[in-house]
């Protein structure tokens, strides 16, 4: 199959101070994009004027393929991505989600599409930790350390072989998008782990690909509180599976 149509979901939350650069980058990049596409921003109940800024930019630039969905209250990144994925066009050939700050450059989109067309892997997850990854600007050292510790714990809790589950750049085939996101239950940051967990349970093919990554400041992740909550959610998803709260294969 040759890809013709893609859907891209971008969750946003209180991004008014840094969304402008991303919007201009997206507009310029997709003005010469060789595939048909839709870009779906999902505002996760922002308390600033992120949604208004997005609406104004889309309308002023006549960007008919840029769409904005709104959650009525802040539910979490996982909830926003799920909402965007389930409201994307059903006839797309591939589905992406990526972070609003574009820490992973837009040029990686074509690389992932080309890899998919050759290998037909259902889920491709970006990694900042493989040998061929190119981290141009690093996170603060304590954030990188906590990330490495978290992924080592995941190897024990969900038996994953992946070394970077939390990079906000992932691709899904139509089959994977439908199966994974209708069953997604974790609403906040550990939803990336749930994706990997469910892919393994449902025998959906998944691979880790190296990406270029440029750290942007103002992370929404609180290093202590959110790390603890993420570990609790990882334990919860194991319990949910044992209790039969997920759809079986």
Describe the structure.
With 249 residues, the chain is of the alpha/beta class. It has a single domain, classed as Spore Coat Polysaccharide Biosynthesis Protein SpsA, Chain A, CATH 3.90.550.10. The protein has eight helices and nine strands. The chain has helices at 19-30, 50-60, 77-86, 108-119, 141-157, 174-181, 191-201, 225-242; strands at 5-12, 36-44, 66-71, 94-98, 123-127, 134-137, 169-172, 206-210, 212-214. The strands form two sheets. The chain has a seven-stranded mixed beta sheet with strand order 3-2-1-4-7-5-8, sandwiched between helices. A two-stranded parallel sheet has the order 6-9. Helix 1 links the parallel strand 1 (5-12) and strand 2. Helix 5 (141-157) packs parallel to helix 8 (225-242). The radius of gyration is 17 Å and the shape is globular.
């Amino acid at each position: 199959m040759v890809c013709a149509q893609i859907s891209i979901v971008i969750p946003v939350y209180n991004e008014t101070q840094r969304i402008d650069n991303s919007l201009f980058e997206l507009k310029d990049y997709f003005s010469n994009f060789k595939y048909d596409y839709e870009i779906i921003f999902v505002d996760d109940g922002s308390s600033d004027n992120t949604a208004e800024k997005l609406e104004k930019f889309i309308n002023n630039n006549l960007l008919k393929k840029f769409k904005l969905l709104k959650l009525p209250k802040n539910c979490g990144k996982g909830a926003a991505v799920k909402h965007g994925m389930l409201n994307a066009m059903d006839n797309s050939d591939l589905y992406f989600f990526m972070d609003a700050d574009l820490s992973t450059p837009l040029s990686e989109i074509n690389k992932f599409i080309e890899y998919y067309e050759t290998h037909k892997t259902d889920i491709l997850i970006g990694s900042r930790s493989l040998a061929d990854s190119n981290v141009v600007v690093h996170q603060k050292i304590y954030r990188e350390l906590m990330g490495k510790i978290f992924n080592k714990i995941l190897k024990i809790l969900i038996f994953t072989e992946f070394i970077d589950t939390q990079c906000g750049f992932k691709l899904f085939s139509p089959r994977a998008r439908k199966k994974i996101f209708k069953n997604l239950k974790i609403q906040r940051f550990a939803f990336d782990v749930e994706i990997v967990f469910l892919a393994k349970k449902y025998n959906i093919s998944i691979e880790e690909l190296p990406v270029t990554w440029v750290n942007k400041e103002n992370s929404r992740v609180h290093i202590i509180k959110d790390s603890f909550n993420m570990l609790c959610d990882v334990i919860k998803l194991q319990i949910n599976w044992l209790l039969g709260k997920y759809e079986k294969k």
